Amino acid sequence: MVVIQALVDGILIGGVYAVVSIGLTLVFGVMGIVNFAQAEFLMLGMFVGYLAWAWLGLDPLIGSVIAFAVVFALGCVVQHTLIRRVLRAPPVAQIFLTVGLLIVIENAALLGFGSQFRSVTTPYQTSALRLGDLFISVPYLAAFLMSVVSGLALWLFMNRSWYGRAMRATAQDGMAASLMGIDADRMRRIAFGLGVGLTAFGGAVILPYFTVHPTVGAQFVVLMFTVVVLGGLGSVAGAIVGGQAVGIIQSLSAMAFPVQLQNLVLFLVFITVLALRPQGLVGGAR
Amino acid sequence: MRPSLVLAAVALTVAALLPLTLDPAGYLIRVLTVTLLFAAMSQAWNIVGGLANQMSLGHAAFFGIGAYTSTILLVNYGLSPWIGMLAGAALGAAFAALVSVPTMGLRGHYFALATLAFGEVMRVIANSWPSLTGGPAGISVPFAPDSLLMLQFKSTLPYYYLMLAALVLVTAVFVVTKAGALGYRLRAVKENPDAAEVVGVDTARVKTIAAVMSGGIMAALGTAYAQFTFFFDPETVFGLGPISIRVALIAILGGIGTAAGPIVGAFVIIPLEELANSWLSAGTAGLSQLVYGILLMLIILVQPRGLVAPVEALAARWRTRRAR
Fold it and tell me: Which positions, given as ranges, span the membrane (chain A) (predicted)?
């Protein structure tokens, strides 16, 4: 029973991990860039959600939409002013530009918000649904459902809209897409905005059960990379499977190891997968 | 004599004589000592990052191994840090060989990610094994009277010369490696790994040798750091920002893959950091790091080949003009 409970928790948390990581994988899929600063956008999303709650009294689940919009706009600017310039540069430039971005965002947040921990209070924060012997935490469930909805919305956008098709075309071959009259720069801008926006959205929906502070991103960096590497960099479907896998690994290892060592388990999974199947467990298709 | 050799000789003479004009226990000499140490660390990173073009974001792993090995041996068994340094370097080299196994086939982003994970693994282990490492509370080097044998001094001056010697040694290793057969093989791997393999370069072996050298040296420098600061914790020696990213940034700023790069980079970055930290009050924590990040992005966007490159280009132009 304890194991089943851990599995349920793992799946619910994993849903959020999936959405957060879809952002990262989307950026890689369209631009071929590994964004080391991705987790910082999650932190920004949490802060937007927090401020929307503190100033406007909005529930974080509604605030998450604002977080998405704000960070989407910021992402477009970052893509236009910074990322665009290293798209054809060697990996060293791409790696260290996003590492620089990571340092800048984290410390800007430290200056702007201070280093204290903050959390929101919601009426459903500590409530749980009872299913037989199982407890389903309401904030976990709410975050999970929001994640599923946003995942579906992204899928519809990518597969049913002109923008989505144009973006996938840009991902496959930017030059060819340009020749077909697609503004590839604009598509990349939207893709980066969408990617970091989704991650920010995921950050805001976990606010009811997660405290926010400027360095919270560090807790998610390896987690997000583990998710996308498990699923294959650039694969959205892979990120969903990877997110579930990481959620389950985390909640199962929580039963066996003390808190500090849970991350260690994740690191080892990450290194093993990277070494054995860098193209991801789900397969090369994206 | 080649101009670069003349330049090196002049720089070394200045570096050797400069502290005689400074207060031996003062602030300035401390900054210079840290600068020399980071130049040496960055030079060690340069063997993997510059020559083999493998962007490691996990060099803190080796650094921390060296710091902890010598300090634990000293605390528990009273062993001289010199022996601890050798033991640490051996462990660091062994760990580098171990890390090389799974990361060998990885290129670019994947290599950076994997090494980042290894560095973080070491940080987590150091934090969660208090009986050995002292855990998050950190570990102190036990006090001893001034002695070369125990590598402990009250004045900063001996440490200055220790770090200077370390920098000269590591730079010599870098220059000899770069000019030697290994350097040519590494260059082949860097330019085109597949082609290098075809012409008979054992790319896996060449990359492992570079990693082992780099890891061993980095660990030895970790011991030097521990003896210099007397106290450290997992965040300071295994930290991603304080060590791994910083040593890479120094090399990139100065000029990646060049012998002068890490030295120039360290002499720009470390004093700049110190200035920022002393000018800004404690209330504005984060501002110096913010400046740091902006600087990193600017270098990448404006001068990705580093500060040394334009100087070299200028010197080359001057030489050709004179030859005419």
Answer: 12-34, 41-58, 64-83, 95-114, 134-158, 190-210, 216-242, 254-276
